[in-house]
């Protein structure tokens, strides 16, 4: 077939963090050998840790329209190929990367290339995107993308595409990985079993983006996908669902069917799994090796302040022990600096980690993403440290800069205590111990902890610099 329309689908790197931690605040780049080592570590992190392909763009690239060829450009690994002739460039926009997306869009449009923007930021803030695009796609694009490509072929692209309703996930839409350069990635086995979240944690916008009703795919479609994927790529599977045990009955049925396929997998779950013994057993038997759990806070007052009420503080430790006992390693994500936190909170976090022997602790500060309830509240309270009127001023980095003033702790003391906390949690000794003690995937646990030892050193340097910058402003 002669392709007459060339379409690029673009995924952008974040400023730091999972796409390769780098220093953000001025003159903190170390000299000589250290710099060389840091850039080596950064590349290693990018290639081995979170380098998974964007499922959204895999889904769009799988939609076939006669006369259209789609190419996936992952700018975490390559420069945008400006030397090629493009009829349409689609960019996936996350809120923290909006300015990067707009910059690229403007550059392309100044060369006469048509640009379509889609993704979470477009769904939340379409008004901020219009000036940078020929076409906007709102919401989940599983159905709309076919219309966009068909209109491209007939030169009748519309300015906006909006779904009447979310796509019907019960329809079989096989995902192809033909557009991926497979060796770049840690794994290409990405699967989503459903969308939507019934909870409303105030720092998250998944329930706004995907709705509050959990919409699931058909179990036999998922099983087919896993079978097909595992034949092509023997590496680990990542179930990207925000809460893979959100519907325990569905999850149990699904993973029972996956046992014979003999895969290994990781995913994201709520700690309530520790009280779901049959599901836990099914997860372990179906090849689950690691789960990311959002602990967020062990302070009841903080959990209430931020509407994280689906798992109870007094049950957390027991649940974590039960999950680890089944052979599943845990990445437990905390947020220090929530509205109920005080200077005593770091010690409580340290005790909790020691008590539960969490394999990889993630010690985050709050990221008030525009469009979340917590962003609105902090704006009203005048606590944001970035311009809330400029939608592109929010950037997504790791714990390297404070984006708000904590409620109960003055900023300098907070930064000092956060730095002290990360210094105590992450060091080479702890990394080796956690690697040895993990119930499974010991090398990965060791690697993650070493990565964080490196990352939080950057975090401490950057936070100190940020404080100086704020002080002199
Ligand atoms: C897996 C995952 C990752 C993976 C893979 C990245 C990826 N996006 O594929 C990793 C670990 C690398 C990652 C990293 C980050 N992530 Co992430 N991640 C997710 C997660 C859990 C699932 C994403 C997914 O695969 N969804 C399934 C697909 C099918 O849905 P979708 O992405 O929404 O895409 C649909 C529409 O948005 C739209 N669409 C998307 N792109 C485009 C492009 C075009 C042209 C069109 C037309 C349509 C379109 O159509 C798609 C199909 O319906 C989501 C939470 C969630 N529920 O979505 C968070 C999420 C996307 N991540 C988020 C964030 C903040 C990050 C990081 C910045 C975190 C960090 N610490 O650095 C980085 C950024 C990395 C990057 N370069 O973008 C936020 C984004 C918030 C926002 N408002 O922008 C989310 C929503 C989590 C949250 N609770 O807030 N992430
Ligand atoms: S943090 Fe998790 S549980 Fe809370 S709203 Fe977001 S996706 Fe749902």
TrEMBL record:
<dbReference type="InterPro" id="IPR034466">
    <property type="entry name" value="Methyltransferase_Class_B"/>
</dbReference>
<dbReference type="InterPro" id="IPR006158">
    <property type="entry name" value="Cobalamin-bd"/>
</dbReference>
<dbReference type="GO" id="GO:0031419">
    <property type="term" value="F:cobalamin binding"/>
</dbReference>
<feature type="domain" description="Radical SAM core">
    <location>
        <begin position="183"/>
        <end position="410"/>
    </location>
</feature>
<dbReference type="InterPro" id="IPR058240">
    <property type="entry name" value="rSAM_sf"/>
</dbReference>
<dbReference type="InterPro" id="IPR006638">
    <property type="entry name" value="Elp3/MiaA/NifB-like_rSAM"/>
</dbReference>
<dbReference type="GO" id="GO:0003824">
    <property type="term" value="F:catalytic activity"/>
</dbReference>
<dbReference type="Pfam" id="PF02310">
    <property type="entry name" value="B12-binding"/>
</dbReference>
<keyword id="KW-0949">S-adenosyl-L-methionine</keyword>
<keyword id="KW-0479">Metal-binding</keyword>
<dbReference type="InterPro" id="IPR051198">
    <property type="entry name" value="BchE-like"/>
</dbReference>
<dbReference type="Pfam" id="PF04055">
    <property type="entry name" value="Radical_SAM"/>
</dbReference>
<dbReference type="GO" id="GO:0046872">
    <property type="term" value="F:metal ion binding"/>
</dbReference>
<keyword id="KW-0411">Iron-sulfur</keyword>
<dbReference type="GO" id="GO:0051539">
    <property type="term" value="F:4 iron, 4 sulfur cluster binding"/>
</dbReference>
<feature type="domain" description="B12-binding">
    <location>
        <begin position="83"/>
        <end position="159"/>
    </location>
</feature>
<keyword id="KW-0808">Transferase</keyword>
<dbReference type="InterPro" id="IPR007197">
    <property type="entry name" value="rSAM"/>
</dbReference>
<dbReference type="InterPro" id="IPR023404">
    <property type="entry name" value="rSAM_horseshoe"/>
</dbReference>
<keyword id="KW-0489">Methyltransferase</keyword>
<dbReference type="GO" id="GO:0005829">
    <property type="term" value="C:cytosol"/>
</dbReference>
<keyword id="KW-0408">Iron</keyword>
<protein>
    <submittedName>
        <fullName>BchE/P-methylase family protein</fullName>
    </submittedName>
</protein>
